[in-house]
């Protein structure tokens, strides 16, 4: 059953307990299928359709996509091996693939009376995501529920940071907030609901599917990842959890970076320690595996390098059971690093490395990943996977590599929204193919919040100031058949999250 309804003609109001909080909404008496229902403007947030539906693209073959936003655990889907490629190939529209994780592919509307059910499409450490329908225009969107926001001061500030980032982002390859549902009175404020664009799949599902990926697919995907990451890095943001499952993709291969629950502004003071509880293990940079107390945006570049290798080989590049074994897999390929390359590692990790037998580099093995592992591809990959973060390419440097020239051309020829086609059939290109953020993301407010009550009040006021005012407002509909399931949906269990870093000291 769907979760979003339209406002009834009678405008009847109902008191309801909205997923752990008290609120007032208008619930349609004849249509109770939808989770989101129209509400009085004074009580609920509006749904702003900024961003628009993706335009049909013909730059590369279409991907038969499955539902996204599914943040999988490191012990299950992350270890899933790719299936054998099909000769027919799902890419390009010849073959419809069955979705993973028991999900069904997005149905194409066949008539105006067809109702697409609202349902969960993923969960992670910091939120639950449902695919829902906007009752006003029938557009499918993603509704992210952030439950139990105010458990601790640290967690509440993290949620506030993520929400501010989602509202700050304005980039084609970065997921942003379309709107936030208006919160109840401050006394009952416990959960946050964010509306974002609904994408059709993610890169993990595509990699492990039997669909054929051409060299053009790899280049276009890698270009968009780096393009979005350049925008984030220009805003001084480190994502800290770049992995295929956090790269959403639609059927015409447009890609968006998502899940900013671990993101933060870079720390310029190297004497300040930063948490090591970041990045899914398979995509974790050597400096993190070796206990670095401080790190930079280079950890994101390493993660993208791992994904690049995974796109080429259709398997996880460095897959191990523990952080120590993960480091062993890396040195099997890159060779034993010298002391200079380990300057950011903790003493215990350096000692461990020096006690191990010295290994020579085995970089030629990268050519065996696939036929797409050309000299240019391997050259870029090895520069992104430099052991020393100071020697690793920056995102801007990676984008300038000749390997990505074709990906850039394809993306801006027919996939992007920043360039436009003229009436005579020519293409008017933008002056800046890889735009940066207009200014750095401001995180100075975090130091001003010293108590839970301060965070709660500031967060409530922030949401109220960011509500759209030009559309009919929406609210959670407790009359929905799916309401109980939505209300009880929780975040991932700690055992399903990535393992903690190894304690070297």
TrEMBL record:
Q: Which keywords does this Swiss-Prot/TrEMBL entry list?
A: ATP-binding, Cytoplasm, Kinase, Magnesium, Metal-binding, Nucleotide-binding, Nucleus, Serine/threonine-protein kinase, Transferase, Wnt signaling pathway
**This protein's name:** Mitogen-activated protein kinase
Where ATP binds, per the record, is at 144
Family of the protein in this entry: Belongs to the protein kinase superfamily. Ser/Thr protein kinase family. MAP kinase subfamily. Belongs to the protein kinase superfamily. CMGC Ser/Thr protein kinase family. MAP kinase subfamily.
Recorded GO molecular functions are: ATP binding; MAP kinase activity; metal ion binding
What's the stated role of this polypeptide? Has a role in the Wnt signaling pathway controlling the asymmetry of cell divisions during embryogenesis. Operates in the AB and EMS cell lineages influencing cell specification. Required for body wall muscle development, endoderm development, pop-1 asymmetry and T-cell division asymmetry. Component of the beta-catenin-lit-1 complex which promotes the phosphorylation, down-regulation and subcellular relocation of pop-1. Regulates plp-1 nuclear localization in embryos. Plays a role in male tail tip morphogenesis.
Residue ranges under compositional bias (Low complexity)?
76-86, 94-103
Which stretches does the entry tag as region Disordered? 47-118
Q: Example GO biological process term?
A: Wnt signaling pathway
Which organism's genome codes for this protein?
Scylla paramamosain (Mud crab)
The Protein kinase domain is annotated at: 115-404
Q: Where is the composition biased (Polar residues)?
A: 104-115
- Predominant cellular place of this UniProt entry's protein: cytoplasm
Q: What is its EC number?
A: 2.7.11.24
Compartment annotation:
Cytoplasm; Nucleus
Recorded hits in CDD domains, A to Z, give:
STKc_NLK
One Pfam family it belongs to: Pkinase
Question: Its catalytic activity?
Answer: L-threonyl-[protein] + ATP = O-phospho-L-threonyl-[protein] + ADP + H(+); L-seryl-[protein] + ATP = O-phospho-L-seryl-[protein] + ADP + H(+)
Q: What is the lineage of its organism?
A: Eukaryota, Metazoa, Ecdysozoa, Arthropoda, Crustacea
